Amino acid sequence: MPEIPYQVDKPWGHERIWALTDRYVGKILHVKAGHVLSCQYHERKDETMHVLSGELILRIWADADAPPEERAFRAGDSVHIVPGTIHSIEAVVDSDVLEASTPELDDVIRLRDRYGRS
């Protein structure tokens, strides 16, 4: 395992992984204004996101063919994302989001991605 904490650069900002065990992961997602994380879901990963600072748009899809439900996602707000939930966040301003999840870091199924990732 890498030494904690460590940073993973992303096209939308970066992840700062501050906890990593065989049972849980703790991250801070720094999302730059105007950038969006992929439209994705997880088969096993269960996560909760909490906005530390900034303002984002949270999008959740009932299914891949439906339009998303959108809501403001602001400092102090939290959301629990269970496996199978199609979701994405977009930063209105530079934002920091705390993420606590189960440890399946590679469990990402991207349906759409602005940055061309599969």
Largest sheet: 6 strands, antiparallel
Helix run count: 0
Number of domains: 1
CATH superfamily: Jelly Rolls
Order of helices and strands: EEEEEEEEEEE
Instruction: Compute the CA-based radius of gyration.
Output: 13 Å
Helix amount, in percent?
under 10%
Main β-sheet, spatial strand arrangement:
1-2-3-10-5-8
Give the uncertain stretches in residue-range form. none
CATH level-3 fold name: Jelly Rolls
Overall pLDDT, averaged?
A: 97
Percent range for β-strand residues: over 45%
For the record, the CATH class is Mainly Beta
Tell me how many strands there are: 11
Structural class: mainly beta
The CATH architecture would be Sandwich
What does the oligomeric state look like here? Answer: single chain
Overall 3D form: globular
Report the end-to-end length measured between terminal Cα atoms: 25 Å
Outline of this structure?
The protein is an all-beta fold and 118 residues long. The chain has a single domain, classed as Jelly Rolls (Sandwich). The protein is built from no helices and 11 strands.
How would you characterize the overall build of this protein?
The chain is mostly beta strands. Helix content is 0%, strand content 54%. The chain has no helices and eleven strands. The protein has a six-stranded antiparallel sheet with strand order 1-2-3-10-5-8, with no helix packed on it. A three-stranded antiparallel sheet has the order 7-6-9, with no helix packed on it. It has a two-stranded antiparallel ribbon with strand order 4-11. The mean pLDDT is 97.
List the helices and strands and how they pair.
Blueprint: E1 6-10, E2 13-20, E3 25-31, E4 39-41, E5 47-53, E6 55-61, E7 69-74, E8 78-81, E9 86-91, E10 95-101, E11 109-112
Antiparallel strand pairs: 1-2, 2-3, 3-10, 4-11, 5-8, 5-10, 6-7, 6-9
